[in-house]
Amino acid sequence: MSSSESSLDRVVPADWSVTDDDEALAALVNLVVVLADNKFFLGRRFSEWLAGGPSLESAVALAAISQEELGHARALYPLLEEMPLVDTPGPLQRGAERERKYCLSCLDEPWEWWADVVAALILVDPALTILFRALEDSRYDDLRQRAARVPSEEVFHRKYAEGRLRDLARTDQGRETLQRRIDWMLPEVLMWFGPSGEPGVAALKTQGLIMLDNDEMRDAFQKDVASILEENGLRAELGELPWERWNSLQRRVE
Amino acid sequence: MKAERDQEYYDVFARRKAEEPLEHIGTVGASEPSDAEVFAFKLYDQWKWTEQFVARRADIIEVVRTP
C-alpha cells in the first residue's frame, strides 16, 4: 500500500489505538479505499451483465454476486471516516463522486465481452479474497470483523466462477476468447499485490494489521488460480510485469 | 457461440426449521452439480433455510406416478 499521499495529515493522534506508526496509518487508509473501490467497481461491472448472462439461473446468481460485491464495498467505506486523518477519500455510491479511483484499470469501463465477466470472476474476485484473508487476524478490530464475512460469501462466487469458466473453455473459440481476456487482466492483478518489499505493506505487517507481505499474497493467489486455469486448457504465462506503468497510490496500471 | 454447456434439471428441496418437513421449493437448470448448488442457493434465498438440497431429476426414482 502506498504511503506517498502528500495531502494526508500523517500525525497519528494519541487516542487512536490501531497504530502509532504514520507509514502504517497512511498504508491502512490506502488499503481500505483500494479494497472498497475494487469491490465497488467489480459489483458495478457485474451488474451491467445481468441481462447478458447465458441463462436465467446464471443471471440471477450474478445479480446476487454483484449485490454482495457492492455490499462488501459499503461495509468498508465507513472505516475511512474513523481514520484520524483529514482528506481521506469519500465513499462511492454511483461511481462518479470523486475523480481519483483506486481500482484496477480493467474495471474502469463497461466490459464488451461475457469473457471479461468470467475472467474477472476467476482473477479479480479471488485476488481481493486473498487480501481479505490476510486481514482475518488483523489487529484492527473493525476491519477484521468486516473482512471476516467476505471469504465465506466468496465460496459461492468461486463455484459460480469455475462453472462459467468450464462453460466457456469447453470450445476452442470460447477458450481462445477467454485466454485473451485473461492475458489482459492477469498482469495487472498480479501487480495489484504490489512490488516485493513495498514499505507500506511492510509497515502494516510489522504493526500486525495484515498477515502477509506482497510476495506471500501474490504466491497465494497464483497457487489459488493456477490449477483451475490449467484444468481448462488456459495459460497463466507472463512476461515481464510493466512496473514502469504502475501507480502505487491507486494500485493500478496506467 | 453458445456460452453454456447442455443443462439438465435439478430439483431443489429445503426446510426452514429442523422439525419441519423437507419441502420441494423449485428447480434449477444446471450443467453440473456444483452449478446446481450455486444456482439453488442464490435463486431460492427467500428464507434463511436450515437445510437445502439439490437432486438431479434424472436420479430421482419414481415410485408412484398418477397420470
Task: Supply the key terms.
heterodimer, A: 254 residues, mainly alpha, Ferritin, two-stranded antiparallel ribbon, 2 strands, B: 67 residues, alpha+beta, Ubiquitin-like (UB roll), three-stranded antiparallel beta sheet, 1 helix, 3 strands, 16% helix, flat
Instruction: Report the major sheet of chain A.
Output: 2 strands, antiparallel
Radius of gyration of chain A: 18 Å
Largest interface in this structure: A-B, 22 and 20 residues
CATH architecture of chain A: Up-down Bundle
Helix content of chain A: 55-70%
Specify the overall morphology of chain A.
globular
Q: How many domain units of chain A? A: 1
Strand order of the largest sheet of chain A: 1-2
Q: Portion of residues in helices of chain B?
A: 10-25%
Could you name the ranges of chain B where pLDDT drops below 50 across 5 or more consecutive residues? none
Beta-sheet strand percentage of chain A?
under 5%
Would you mind describing this structure in some detail?
The complex is a heterodimer of chains A (254) and B (67). Chain A is built from 8 helices and 2 strands; from the N terminus they run ααααααααββ. With 254 residues, chain A is mostly helical. Chain A has one domain (22-253): Ferritin (Up-down Bundle), CATH 1.20.1260.10. In chain A, strands 1-2 form a two-stranded antiparallel sheet. Chain A is globular and about 60 Å long. Chain A starts with 21 loop residues before the first helix and ends with a strand. The mean pLDDT of chain B is 93. Chain B is built from 1 helix and 3 strands, in the order ββαβ. Chain B has a 3-stranded antiparallel sheet, with helices on one face. Chain B is α+β, with helices and mostly antiparallel strands and 67 residues long. Chain B has one domain (8-59): Ubiquitin-like (UB roll) (Roll). In chain B, 16% of the residues lie in helices and 33% in strands. Chain B is flat. In chain B, strand 1 (8-15) and strand 2 form a beta hairpin. The A-B interface holds A 54-58, 60-61, 64-65, 114, 156, 159-160, 162-163, 166-168, 170-171, 173-174 and B 1-5, 7, 28-32, 34-35, 37-39, 41-43, 45.
